Amino acid sequence: MTTRTQDDDRSADGLPRAGVIGLLLELRQADVRVWTSEGQLRWQAATGEVDAALRNRLTQETDAIVAFLEDMDSVESSTHYVTMRDGVRIAVDVFRPKRDGEVVTTPLPAIWCHDRYHRSDIVDGIPRTKLDTRPWLREVLKQGYVIAAADSRGSGASTGSRGQEFSPEETRDAYEITEWLAAQEWCSGNIGMFGESYLGITQFLAAGTAPPSLKAIFPQVALFDLYSFLYPGGILRHDFIHNWGTRVRALDTQLEAAPVQDDDDAVREAVAGHQVNADVFARALTLPFRDSRSPEDDGLPFERQSPASAVAAVRESPVAIYQLAGWHDIWVRDAFQWHANLGGPRKLIVGDWSHDGREGADLATEHLRWFDHWLKGIDTGVMDEPSIRYYRRSAAPGEQWRGTEQWPPAEVRTERLYFAAGDDEPLASVNDGALTTAEPSRLGGMDEFVVDYTASSGTATRWTNGYGGPFGYPPMTANDANALTYTTPPLTQALEVTGHPVIRLWVTSTHPDGDFFVYLEDVAPDGESHYVTEGVVRASHRALGTAPYDNLGLPYFPSAEADCHDLPEEPTALTVDLHPISHVFGPGHRLRIAVTGCDRDNARTPVHYPPPVVQIHRRGPQASYVDLPVFPTSQS
Question: What is the pLDDT of residue 632?
Answer without folding.
Answer: 94
